[in-house]
Amino acid sequence: MANETRARYLQEPVGEDLGSKMVFIGGPRQVGKTTFALGFLSGGTERHPAYLSWDDLAARKVLLRGELPARERIIVLDEIHKFARWRNLVKGFYDTHKSTISFLVTGSARLDYYRKGGDSLQGRYHFFRLHPFSLREMSSTPKPEDVDLLVRFGGFPEPLLRGNERAWRRWQRERVARVMNEDIRDLERVREVSMLEALAEELPNRVGAPLSIRNLSLLLQAGHEAVERWVAILERMYLCFRVPPYGAARIRAVRKEQKLYMWDWSQVPGAGERFENLVASQLLKYCHLLEDTEGYRMELRFIRDTDLREVDFVVLQDTKPLFAVECKTGERKVNPAIRYFRARTPIRRFYQVHLGRKDFGNAEKDVRVIPFHTFCAELNLP
């Protein structure tokens, strides 16, 4: 796949919101936030006068003087949260120029962290989470090779668009190192960074099964509370995310178990687990999009009972289940747990997605066995 700039799924909603408020763009490191923001400027390069990065010493001096480039309708402020008093600076810019200038603010995980530290910007911005590329961003009519690339290289723009094994390996190592050496050291009071590195290396092996903090504690020879805190730190840094269980009155659902997935699913070694992680990321992206654009309360959960029957995911909107999804790498028979949970839960649509071509069944009456690319298209997933 050519190394190119592609329109992202948030282009339209962010463009609309820029007409009324500031827009903050958060998400994982190297997910393409700066490139996305530059797309709102004519020419779309870092040399545009309306692109002001705190890492640029010349731009930093301009910002500290309270100056903005003339005759620009959109200003992009990148990494501005590295300035200790950035909230008051941005608030002053917005309150003074909001009738004539739109502000788009981007940054790493630190932006998400710092924006919660006070209420001086309350009511002045909308926050969006930018996710890695998904299948329908790669092509409006995706082909099997598009799915293969996504599974193999993940959804982060640089390795995906280059489609090169060597580049992918180098990118992975450098990205995790930068998260550890920059984001975590700056934000978290962690002395045991080497332990966090060991944990980050181990977590891809835990995808697909209930996450046991106890087992991780034994592996790392660390306390339960410390490991739980380290996993939470890696979640805040957009390295991983956890999915809690879904309970209904007529099933003996597990209550405390959680499953863990990686933002970069290409880290996951097993084929089945990697595909499950890809589907989890696609569904989380769908949930975040509806939260950030429509204001719904969305949840991604899994179903598992004490007899070990399980369906991989269920999506909830305002606490009501919309649909459930089971993942299979091959075109296999229907998971019997689906029909068991259909009879005992208020979930009305069940899908079993796979990487093959078979498409049969009915999601509302029984279960729809459906190729992954067809599933994404029919549910209009971003």
Would you kindly provide a brief summary of this structure?
By secondary structure, the protein is α/β, with parallel strands linked by helices.
Walk me through this protein's architecture.
The chain is of the alpha/beta class. The chain has 2 domains: 11-129, Rossmann fold; 135-378, no CATH class. It has helices at residues 11-17, 33-38, 57-64, 86-97, 109-115, 135-138, 144-153, 157-162, 165-187, 193-202, 213-220, 224-236, 271-294, 336-344, 372-378; strands at 22-26, 51-53, 74-78, 102-106, 125-129, 240-243, 259-262, 298-304, 310-317, 320-327, 350-354, 360-361, 368-371. The strands form 3 sheets. It has a 6-stranded mixed beta sheet, sandwiched between helices. A 5-stranded parallel beta sheet has the order 2-3-4-1-5. It has a two-stranded antiparallel ribbon with strand order 6-7. Strand 3 (74-78), helix 4 (86-97) and strand 4 form a beta-alpha-beta unit. Helix 9 (165-187) runs antiparallel to helix 10 (193-202) and helix 11 (213-220) crosses helix 12 (224-236). The protein starts with 10 loop residues before the first helix and ends with a helix. The mean pLDDT is 91.
